[in-house]
Write a structure and sequence with these properties.
Elements: E1 3-21, E2 24-38, E3 43-48, H1 59-74, H2 82-89, H3 96-114, H4 118-122, E4 128-135, H5 140-154, E5 158-162, H6 169-182, E6 187-191, H7 198-207, E7 213-217, H8 225-234, E8 239-241, H9 248-256, E9 262-265, H10 267-270, H11 273-285, E10 288-291, H12 298-308, H13 312-315, E11 319-320, E12 338-339, E13 342-344, H14 357-363
Parallel strand pairs: 4-5, 4-11, 5-6, 6-7, 7-8, 8-9, 9-10
Antiparallel strand pairs: 1-2, 2-3, 4-13, 12-13
Helix pairs in contact: 1-3, 2-3, 5-6, 7-8
The chain binds [(2S)-5-oxo-2,5-dihydrofuran-2-yl]acetic acid and magnesium ion.
The site of [(2S)-5-oxo-2,5-dihydrofuran-2-yl]acetic acid has 12 residues, from loops.
Length: about 375
Amino acid sequence: MKITAVEAIPFAIPYLKPLRFASGEVHVAEHVLVRIHTEDGIVGVAEAPPRPFTYGETQKGIVAVVEDIFAPDVVGLTLLEREVVRARLDRTVGNPTAKSAVDMAIWDALGKTLDLAVTDLLGGYTDRLRVSHMLGFAEPAKMVAEAERMRERYGISTFKVKVGRRPINLDVDVVRALRERFGEDIDLYVDGNRGWTAAESARAMRQMDDLGLLFAEELCPADDVLGRRWLVEQVDVPFIADESVPTPANVAREVLAGAATAVSIKTARTGFTVSQRVHHLAESLGLDIVMGNQIDGQVGTAATLAFGAAYERTARHAGELSNFLDMSDDLLTRPLQIVDGYLHRLSGVGLGIEIDDEKLARYRTDK
Ligand code: MUC
Ligand code: MG
Protein backbone atom coordinates (compact mmCIF):
# COMPACT_ATOMS: atom_id res chain seq x y z
CA MET A 1 0.00 0.00 0.00
CA LYS A 2 3.02 2.30 -0.09
CA ILE A 3 2.78 5.42 -2.24
CA THR A 4 5.62 5.45 -4.77
CA ALA A 5 4.85 8.42 -7.04
CA VAL A 6 2.51 11.38 -7.49
CA GLU A 7 1.80 12.95 -10.90
CA ALA A 8 0.12 16.29 -11.65
CA ILE A 9 -1.01 16.45 -15.29
CA PRO A 10 -2.45 19.72 -16.65
CA PHE A 11 -5.13 19.37 -19.31
CA ALA A 12 -7.50 21.68 -21.18
CA ILE A 13 -10.98 20.83 -22.50
CA PRO A 14 -13.09 23.65 -24.02
CA TYR A 15 -16.61 24.40 -22.83
CA LEU A 16 -19.45 24.27 -25.35
CA LYS A 17 -20.56 27.58 -23.87
CA PRO A 18 -18.96 29.63 -21.11
CA LEU A 19 -20.37 29.59 -17.58
CA ARG A 20 -20.68 33.13 -16.18
CA PHE A 21 -21.33 34.16 -12.58
CA ALA A 22 -20.72 37.16 -10.30
CA SER A 23 -17.12 36.30 -9.36
CA GLY A 24 -15.86 35.11 -12.76
CA GLU A 25 -16.40 32.99 -15.85
CA VAL A 26 -15.06 29.74 -17.26
CA HIS A 27 -14.47 29.07 -20.99
CA VAL A 28 -12.04 26.15 -20.90
CA ALA A 29 -11.67 23.48 -18.21
CA GLU A 30 -7.96 23.96 -17.54
CA HIS A 31 -7.76 21.43 -14.72
CA VAL A 32 -5.08 19.17 -13.25
CA LEU A 33 -5.36 15.38 -13.07
CA VAL A 34 -3.56 14.01 -10.02
CA ARG A 35 -2.43 10.37 -10.09
CA ILE A 36 -1.15 8.47 -7.06
CA HIS A 37 0.87 5.32 -7.77
CA THR A 38 1.48 2.56 -5.24
CA GLU A 39 4.03 -0.23 -4.94
CA ASP A 40 1.24 -2.70 -5.84
CA GLY A 41 0.75 -1.12 -9.27
CA ILE A 42 -2.50 0.62 -8.24
CA VAL A 43 -3.21 4.11 -9.63
CA GLY A 44 -5.65 6.46 -7.86
CA VAL A 45 -6.98 9.54 -9.67
CA ALA A 46 -8.64 12.86 -8.86
CA GLU A 47 -9.13 16.27 -10.46
CA ALA A 48 -8.14 19.75 -9.23
CA PRO A 49 -9.98 22.70 -10.83
CA PRO A 50 -8.03 25.97 -10.49
CA ARG A 51 -10.37 28.78 -9.44
CA PRO A 52 -8.24 31.93 -9.07
CA PHE A 53 -11.35 34.03 -8.38
CA THR A 54 -12.33 31.78 -5.46
CA TYR A 55 -9.16 30.30 -3.95
CA GLY A 56 -6.30 32.05 -5.76
CA GLU A 57 -5.02 28.81 -7.31
CA THR A 58 -3.84 28.56 -10.94
CA GLN A 59 -3.22 25.50 -13.10
CA LYS A 60 0.56 26.05 -13.11
CA GLY A 61 0.50 26.70 -9.35
CA ILE A 62 -1.37 23.44 -8.68
CA VAL A 63 1.10 21.42 -10.76
CA ALA A 64 4.03 23.11 -8.99
CA VAL A 65 2.74 22.67 -5.43
CA VAL A 66 1.83 19.02 -6.05
CA GLU A 67 5.17 18.19 -7.69
CA ASP A 68 7.45 20.29 -5.48
CA ILE A 69 5.84 20.03 -2.02
CA PHE A 70 3.00 17.49 -1.78
CA ALA A 71 4.64 14.62 -3.70
CA PRO A 72 7.71 14.58 -1.39
CA ASP A 73 5.28 14.91 1.57
CA VAL A 74 3.38 11.72 0.71
CA VAL A 75 5.74 9.39 -1.19
CA GLY A 76 6.74 6.59 1.20
CA LEU A 77 3.53 6.81 3.28
CA THR A 78 0.87 4.10 2.94
CA LEU A 79 -2.69 4.63 1.71
CA LEU A 80 -3.92 4.06 5.26
CA GLU A 81 -2.02 7.03 6.67
CA ARG A 82 -4.52 9.60 5.43
CA GLU A 83 -4.35 11.66 8.62
CA VAL A 84 -0.56 11.84 8.30
CA VAL A 85 -1.06 13.03 4.73
CA ARG A 86 -3.50 15.65 5.94
CA ALA A 87 -1.15 16.90 8.67
CA ARG A 88 1.75 17.13 6.22
CA LEU A 89 -0.24 18.90 3.49
CA ASP A 90 -1.57 21.35 6.07
CA ARG A 91 1.97 22.59 6.72
CA THR A 92 1.41 24.46 3.44
CA VAL A 93 -1.25 27.16 3.70
CA GLY A 94 -4.03 27.53 1.09
CA ASN A 95 -3.99 25.40 -2.08
CA PRO A 96 -7.33 23.71 -1.26
CA THR A 97 -8.01 22.02 -4.60
CA ALA A 98 -4.41 20.76 -4.95
CA LYS A 99 -4.54 19.23 -1.45
CA SER A 100 -7.98 17.77 -2.07
CA ALA A 101 -6.97 16.10 -5.32
CA VAL A 102 -4.05 14.39 -3.57
CA ASP A 103 -6.38 13.26 -0.77
CA MET A 104 -9.09 11.95 -3.11
CA ALA A 105 -6.61 10.14 -5.37
CA ILE A 106 -5.33 8.37 -2.23
CA TRP A 107 -8.90 7.32 -1.34
CA ASP A 108 -9.45 6.10 -4.92
CA ALA A 109 -6.25 4.06 -4.71
CA LEU A 110 -7.28 2.70 -1.32
CA GLY A 111 -10.66 1.57 -2.66
CA LYS A 112 -8.99 -0.09 -5.63
CA THR A 113 -6.51 -1.81 -3.32
CA LEU A 114 -9.21 -3.11 -0.95
CA ASP A 115 -11.66 -3.93 -3.77
CA LEU A 116 -14.24 -1.54 -2.29
CA ALA A 117 -16.08 1.56 -3.49
CA VAL A 118 -15.09 4.87 -1.85
CA THR A 119 -18.77 5.51 -1.05
CA ASP A 120 -18.82 2.30 1.01
CA LEU A 121 -15.55 3.15 2.75
CA LEU A 122 -17.03 6.53 3.74
CA GLY A 123 -20.56 5.61 4.80
CA GLY A 124 -22.46 3.73 2.06
CA TYR A 125 -25.80 5.47 2.59
CA THR A 126 -27.48 5.39 -0.83
CA ASP A 127 -27.12 4.38 -4.45
CA ARG A 128 -28.06 7.68 -6.13
CA LEU A 129 -28.28 11.44 -5.82
CA ARG A 130 -30.84 13.81 -7.25
CA VAL A 131 -29.18 16.32 -9.57
CA SER A 132 -29.33 20.11 -9.39
CA HIS A 133 -28.19 22.11 -12.44
CA MET A 134 -26.45 25.48 -12.15
CA LEU A 135 -27.69 28.15 -14.59
CA GLY A 136 -25.06 30.78 -15.47
CA PHE A 137 -25.79 34.40 -16.39
CA ALA A 138 -27.79 34.99 -19.58
CA GLU A 139 -31.03 36.60 -20.71
CA PRO A 140 -34.16 35.23 -18.99
CA ALA A 141 -35.37 33.50 -22.19
CA LYS A 142 -32.02 31.70 -22.65
CA MET A 143 -31.90 30.56 -19.03
CA VAL A 144 -35.47 29.26 -19.25
CA ALA A 145 -34.56 27.46 -22.50
CA GLU A 146 -31.56 25.82 -20.82
CA ALA A 147 -33.73 24.69 -17.91
CA GLU A 148 -36.25 23.25 -20.41
CA ARG A 149 -33.46 21.34 -22.17
CA MET A 150 -32.14 19.97 -18.85
CA ARG A 151 -35.61 18.87 -17.83
CA GLU A 152 -36.47 17.23 -21.12
CA ARG A 153 -33.17 15.51 -21.75
CA TYR A 154 -32.06 14.62 -18.24
CA GLY A 155 -35.17 14.94 -16.07
CA ILE A 156 -33.49 17.58 -13.88
CA SER A 157 -35.99 19.59 -11.82
CA THR A 158 -33.76 21.51 -9.37
CA PHE A 159 -31.94 24.61 -10.55
CA LYS A 160 -29.42 26.88 -8.87
CA VAL A 161 -29.69 30.29 -10.50
CA LYS A 162 -26.59 32.47 -10.56
CA VAL A 163 -27.41 35.98 -9.32
CA GLY A 164 -25.41 39.00 -8.14
CA ARG A 165 -25.69 41.29 -11.19
CA ARG A 166 -26.64 44.94 -11.14
CA PRO A 167 -29.32 46.17 -11.34
CA ILE A 168 -30.78 43.39 -9.24
CA ASN A 169 -33.85 43.00 -11.42
CA LEU A 170 -31.65 41.40 -14.14
CA ASP A 171 -31.58 38.35 -11.88
CA VAL A 172 -34.96 38.71 -10.20
CA ASP A 173 -36.54 38.66 -13.68
CA VAL A 174 -34.78 35.37 -14.48
CA VAL A 175 -35.98 33.66 -11.30
CA ARG A 176 -39.52 34.94 -11.91
CA ALA A 177 -39.42 33.75 -15.54
CA LEU A 178 -38.33 30.27 -14.42
CA ARG A 179 -41.08 30.05 -11.80
CA GLU A 180 -43.70 31.30 -14.27
CA ARG A 181 -42.61 28.78 -16.91
CA PHE A 182 -42.43 25.71 -14.63
CA GLY A 183 -44.70 26.54 -11.68
CA GLU A 184 -44.24 24.18 -8.74
CA ASP A 185 -42.66 21.50 -10.96
CA ILE A 186 -39.16 22.73 -10.18
CA ASP A 187 -37.11 23.68 -7.13
CA LEU A 188 -35.12 26.91 -7.32
CA TYR A 189 -32.37 28.52 -5.28
CA VAL A 190 -29.96 31.38 -5.90
CA ASP A 191 -26.19 31.87 -5.60
CA GLY A 192 -24.74 35.40 -5.62
CA ASN A 193 -21.00 34.60 -5.45
CA ARG A 194 -20.67 37.74 -3.27
CA GLY A 195 -21.84 40.01 -6.10
CA TRP A 196 -24.37 42.11 -4.21
CA THR A 197 -24.11 44.24 -1.10
CA ALA A 198 -26.10 43.13 1.94
CA ALA A 199 -28.72 45.82 1.20
CA GLU A 200 -29.04 44.79 -2.46
CA SER A 201 -29.34 41.15 -1.37
CA ALA A 202 -32.10 41.99 1.12
CA ARG A 203 -33.98 43.96 -1.55
CA ALA A 204 -33.65 41.16 -4.10
CA MET A 205 -34.78 38.53 -1.59
CA ARG A 206 -37.85 40.66 -0.75
CA GLN A 207 -38.66 40.93 -4.47
CA MET A 208 -38.39 37.12 -4.77
CA ASP A 209 -40.43 36.50 -1.63
CA ASP A 210 -43.30 34.90 -3.55
CA LEU A 211 -41.06 32.65 -5.68
CA GLY A 212 -40.60 29.81 -3.20
CA LEU A 213 -36.81 29.66 -3.08
CA LEU A 214 -35.19 26.70 -1.32
CA PHE A 215 -31.94 28.42 -0.33
CA ALA A 216 -29.87 31.56 -0.83
CA GLU A 217 -26.07 31.19 -1.20
CA GLU A 218 -23.22 33.70 -0.70
CA LEU A 219 -25.32 36.69 -1.83
CA CYS A 220 -22.88 39.22 -0.32
CA PRO A 221 -19.31 38.95 1.04
CA ALA A 222 -18.94 37.26 4.44
CA ASP A 223 -16.19 39.82 5.10
CA ASP A 224 -18.94 42.44 5.29
CA VAL A 225 -19.32 41.05 8.80
CA LEU A 226 -22.26 43.00 10.21
CA GLY A 227 -24.01 43.42 6.87
CA ARG A 228 -23.91 39.69 6.30
CA ARG A 229 -25.28 38.92 9.78
CA TRP A 230 -28.03 41.52 9.28
CA LEU A 231 -28.95 39.89 5.96
CA VAL A 232 -28.96 36.30 7.23
CA GLU A 233 -31.21 37.28 10.17
CA GLN A 234 -33.94 38.48 7.83
CA VAL A 235 -33.72 35.84 5.09
CA ASP A 236 -36.32 33.14 5.77
CA VAL A 237 -34.60 30.29 3.90
CA PRO A 238 -31.32 28.54 4.83
CA PHE A 239 -28.38 30.75 3.84
CA ILE A 240 -25.61 28.60 2.33
CA ALA A 241 -21.96 29.39 2.96
CA ASP A 242 -19.84 28.31 -0.02
CA GLU A 243 -16.58 30.11 -0.79
CA SER A 244 -16.58 31.71 2.68
CA VAL A 245 -16.01 28.28 4.27
CA PRO A 246 -13.07 26.49 2.63
CA THR A 247 -12.15 24.79 5.96
CA PRO A 248 -14.12 23.24 8.87
CA ALA A 249 -12.90 26.08 11.11
CA ASN A 250 -14.38 28.57 8.66
CA VAL A 251 -17.70 26.73 8.87
CA ALA A 252 -17.66 26.99 12.66
CA ARG A 253 -16.66 30.66 12.56
CA GLU A 254 -19.24 31.75 9.99
CA VAL A 255 -22.10 29.81 11.55
CA LEU A 256 -21.28 31.05 15.06
CA ALA A 257 -21.08 34.60 13.69
CA GLY A 258 -24.59 34.29 12.24
CA ALA A 259 -23.20 34.62 8.70
CA ALA A 260 -24.60 31.30 7.43
CA THR A 261 -27.19 28.68 8.33
CA ALA A 262 -26.30 25.95 5.79
CA VAL A 263 -23.16 24.73 4.07
CA SER A 264 -22.03 23.71 0.60
CA ILE A 265 -19.64 20.76 0.68
CA LYS A 266 -17.32 20.72 -2.32
CA THR A 267 -15.04 17.73 -2.50
CA ALA A 268 -12.90 19.77 -4.90
CA ARG A 269 -11.86 21.98 -1.96
CA THR A 270 -12.08 19.65 1.05
CA GLY A 271 -11.39 16.26 -0.53
CA PHE A 272 -12.88 13.32 1.34
CA THR A 273 -10.86 13.47 4.56
CA VAL A 274 -11.77 17.09 5.34
CA SER A 275 -15.28 16.90 3.80
CA GLN A 276 -16.00 14.22 6.42
CA ARG A 277 -15.17 16.77 9.12
CA VAL A 278 -17.40 19.40 7.49
CA HIS A 279 -20.20 16.85 7.23
CA HIS A 280 -19.92 15.79 10.88
CA LEU A 281 -19.79 19.42 12.01
CA ALA A 282 -22.84 20.33 9.91
CA GLU A 283 -24.72 17.33 11.28
CA SER A 284 -23.86 18.26 14.87
CA LEU A 285 -24.97 21.84 14.31
CA GLY A 286 -28.14 20.79 12.46
CA LEU A 287 -27.19 22.55 9.22
CA ASP A 288 -28.51 21.70 5.78
CA ILE A 289 -25.84 20.49 3.37
CA VAL A 290 -25.83 20.89 -0.40
CA MET A 291 -23.20 18.98 -2.37
CA GLY A 292 -21.75 21.84 -4.40
CA ASN A 293 -20.03 22.11 -7.76
CA GLN A 294 -16.61 23.69 -8.26
CA ILE A 295 -17.40 23.67 -12.01
CA ASP A 296 -16.05 20.14 -12.00
CA GLY A 297 -15.40 17.86 -14.93
CA GLN A 298 -16.56 14.25 -14.79
CA VAL A 299 -13.66 13.10 -12.58
CA GLY A 300 -14.57 15.78 -10.02
CA THR A 301 -18.27 15.05 -10.36
CA ALA A 302 -17.64 11.34 -9.69
CA ALA A 303 -15.88 12.40 -6.48
CA THR A 304 -18.83 14.61 -5.42
CA LEU A 305 -21.18 11.71 -6.15
CA ALA A 306 -19.03 9.25 -4.17
CA PHE A 307 -19.08 11.49 -1.11
CA GLY A 308 -22.68 12.69 -1.42
CA ALA A 309 -23.99 9.11 -1.63
CA ALA A 310 -22.16 8.16 1.56
CA TYR A 311 -24.34 10.03 4.09
CA GLU A 312 -28.03 10.71 4.69
CA ARG A 313 -27.56 14.46 5.11
CA THR A 314 -25.50 14.90 1.93
CA ALA A 315 -28.10 12.90 -0.05
CA ARG A 316 -31.11 14.82 1.29
CA HIS A 317 -31.03 17.68 -1.22
CA ALA A 318 -30.22 17.58 -4.93
CA GLY A 319 -26.45 17.76 -5.52
CA GLU A 320 -24.84 20.02 -8.11
CA LEU A 321 -23.64 17.25 -10.41
CA SER A 322 -24.40 18.31 -13.96
CA ASN A 323 -22.20 21.16 -15.16
CA PHE A 324 -19.83 18.75 -16.92
CA LEU A 325 -22.64 18.68 -19.51
CA ASP A 326 -21.42 22.12 -20.62
CA MET A 327 -18.01 20.67 -21.59
CA SER A 328 -17.18 19.56 -25.13
CA ASP A 329 -15.56 16.30 -23.94
CA ASP A 330 -14.06 14.66 -20.84
CA LEU A 331 -11.51 12.07 -19.72
CA LEU A 332 -13.55 9.01 -18.75
CA THR A 333 -13.88 5.73 -20.67
CA ARG A 334 -17.52 5.49 -19.47
CA PRO A 335 -19.13 8.98 -19.40
CA LEU A 336 -21.43 9.80 -16.48
CA GLN A 337 -25.13 9.45 -17.30
CA ILE A 338 -27.87 11.52 -15.68
CA VAL A 339 -31.17 9.64 -16.01
CA ASP A 340 -34.59 10.85 -14.81
CA GLY A 341 -32.93 13.57 -12.75
CA TYR A 342 -30.59 11.20 -10.89
CA LEU A 343 -26.95 10.26 -11.03
CA HIS A 344 -26.56 6.68 -9.83
CA ARG A 345 -23.56 5.38 -7.92
CA LEU A 346 -20.89 4.15 -10.26
CA SER A 347 -20.24 0.45 -10.22
CA GLY A 348 -16.70 -0.62 -9.55
CA VAL A 349 -14.08 -0.01 -6.91
CA GLY A 350 -12.56 3.26 -5.73
CA LEU A 351 -14.37 6.14 -7.43
CA GLY A 352 -15.63 3.72 -10.10
CA ILE A 353 -14.05 5.65 -12.96
CA GLU A 354 -11.38 4.87 -15.53
CA ILE A 355 -9.29 7.45 -17.39
CA ASP A 356 -9.31 7.10 -21.17
CA ASP A 357 -5.61 7.17 -22.08
CA GLU A 358 -6.25 8.43 -25.60
CA LYS A 359 -8.34 11.32 -24.35
CA LEU A 360 -5.78 12.22 -21.72
CA ALA A 361 -3.06 12.19 -24.41
CA ARG A 362 -5.24 14.46 -26.57
CA TYR A 363 -6.05 17.02 -23.87
CA ARG A 364 -2.94 17.11 -21.70
CA THR A 365 -0.96 20.29 -22.21
CA ASP A 366 2.41 19.24 -20.79
CA LYS A 367 3.46 16.97 -23.69
C1 MUC B 1 -20.61 28.03 -7.01
O1 MUC B 1 -21.35 27.35 -6.32
O2 MUC B 1 -20.32 29.13 -6.58
C2 MUC B 1 -18.62 29.40 -9.10
C3 MUC B 1 -17.60 29.95 -8.40
C4 MUC B 1 -17.12 28.97 -7.52
O3 MUC B 1 -16.22 29.04 -6.70
O4 MUC B 1 -17.83 27.83 -7.68
C5 MUC B 1 -18.77 28.00 -8.72
C6 MUC B 1 -20.11 27.52 -8.32
MG1 MG C 1 -21.57 28.96 -4.74
